[in-house]
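Subject: Interface between my chains keeps coming out wrong

I've been trying for a while to get a sensible model of this assembly. When I model each chain on its own everything looks fine, but I need the whole thing in one frame so I can look at the contacts. Pasting all components below, labels as-is. Any help appreciated, I'm running out of ideas.
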Amino acid sequence: MSPPYYEQLAKWTEFVPESEIRRLLLTKVKYYFGGGKPGSLPIDAFKKILYQIADELDMDGIDVLNYGPTSGTFSLKETLEQRMREKDGISFPKGPDDILISTGSQQMLYGLLDVLLRPKDVIIMSRPSYLGFVVPVTKLGGDVLTVPTDMDGIIPEYVEKAIEISQRELNRTPKAIYVVSDSDNPKGTTLPEKRRKKLFELTTQHEILLIEDSAYREIQFSEIPPPIKKYDTDNEWVAYLRTSSKEAAVLRLGYSVLPEKIMIPMIKVKGYLDLCTSSLNQKILEIYYSKYIDDVLGDNLKIYEERRDVMQKTIDEHFPSQGQRTNPTGGFFFWFQMENGKFDSSRFLEDVAIPNDVCYVPGQAFYPIRGHSISSYDSKLHGNRIKTNGMRLSFSFTTPQIISEGMEQLGKLLQKEA
Ligand SMILES: Cc1ncc(COP(=O)(O)O)c(C=O)c1O
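Reply #2:
Try treating it as a single job with all components included. I did that and got this:
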């Protein structure tokens, strides 16, 4: 018999499923293209930084090993401000205090929703979307409204329709639009400049917050357009989320540029979530961003780029021609979609791929558990739409050899389904 408290846990525990990725992380196969973790890290630079910090502990150990300000260490925020100003053209009307440091950018996504959502508030996002954002919207009582994507990512014309339809048919102006502008998770797409400008226009015109999640901004193999945040010179309309996790996941350090009206409640929420982010980790990141990143990141990027190239080539050689892949110019992922809409990548994973030593993340994981959608064929409001024919393939963690063999193996298996 289970104890009575077990029957009375919070309502969300009854409808929020276990994360598909967390489950797949435990899968042991030779050809693993599941979780999106970094596979190339600046280890030597971090060794040097750790020695430097060990020396500095004599001087300011009491601060480095202590609690710090909830919003983050000021000197780290200064370093990040300078980098984002110089590299991305972002404006900081209030200087470093426009930045909030978090324990991973995941904490920011969850905290933002906690600050923003009233029951049934509508959040617009792409279909598919990063599952670490999609599911918390529903968990926290919001209403997901998805719009179609193509090989360039979210399509602003559908976002515009979604805003109108939400106002007309759901009687609510959406609270926020969520986009992963650079090397999206899961599709690997990067938004063209024109779409970025249009999204910013929609945001200001309809007075809706834009949540720009730029987790893969530093993992780029060629030049990409500036962040949407660049247009938000008064820091009013875009909550801009970045993270160092793709360069050093262990630090669990996110950093966001937030409008002042959101910053104030966000600091309160963060205080309740963790009081503050690790001061030691912030010190490590500050040294990395101020002294090392530009010298060492390039080597890691070359490794990722080679892996991307090998995956691209082997998909093109071995996967069915009745399917389509995206064309990532950075980040960690390809998305492959079978033409046959009835293909079920989840079933195929369990029944065929894993028994043959291959693992990927089925596309279904990136769709909401409930909500509304705008369809591409009639641009009308529909219920939740889940497509089963896509899969996310991560190239970040495995060697070119494994990628090449694994893609050939998976391609041969998929050919039988085409
Ligand atoms: C698009 C996107 N946003 C946010 C996150 C969360 O990153 P972090 O490790 O900084 O919490 C991830 C992690 O994979 C991601 O892919």
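Reply #3:
Confirming on my end. The chain has 14 helices and 16 strands.
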